[in-house]
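Can anyone check this?
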Amino acid sequence: MRHPSTTLLFGVASCKIPPIASFVPSPRLRQSTSPLATIPDIVLREDDDATLVIRKLGMFDKDDLEEMARFCIDVFYNFVNGGDETIVTRTWKDVKLAALRKAQILDLTIPTKGNRAIYVAMKLPSSTSDITTINSQIIGCCEVIEEKLDINYNPKSQTIISERERKKTARYRPVIENLAVKREFRRNGIALALLNAIEADVKTWIPIHDEVFAQVKEGNIPALEFFKKQGFTALFVDPTCTQIELDGIFMKETTVSKVMTRKILHNDEQGIGPP
């Protein structure tokens, strides 16, 4: 299930936390890892109350993957529509959200043919905090996966070729998906830290990739500006992508236009990318 990635999420923060100075340039490593994780946590901020880290999830770390799936669906779909929701509509929406969470968990836990990496931003209890009052929680997520992708699509063509048809002549490329940050932690560098971790991971993949891609829903200006600032360029607008809508009695798949963006990866040690 890849639908949540159809809208990379960036929004105006409802509240802020103090700036995290260690997001950029490079965060330091902390020698502690989650169960079955492959690299140490990247510590973003550490104070008396809590520690913020970027963590790579192990592909067999079921509990963390399930929590990430729930977080992803809740951030993308579980918002309140002002005063329009009634007890009945909210209850039925909760049923649909539960189905989406199960589908997302299944998607994350099924092995893939190619490379895949999942990173989360986590708020952890600090060594001096009261662990009974501050629980560990995911506050951001991002994943990258090798998917069959055709970038030789001509957006000016009068013939619209579906996303499914283009995949038949495509090759595997790293595509960033499900980049999201919890509302109260946005605009503090967490999305950038997740993106940096994803890009660094892709540079270690075999076969070697010299580029990474992301699709952004057309009209999502904050997300487009974010990726542009990080070196992504727009290739074309794909009018055949899909997303899940929860409006109405049943969930439905609708067609949306997304901007395909690409970034060239530079890695001097491996000779990746142009000089």
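Reply from J.R.: I decoded it. The chain has five helices and nine strands.
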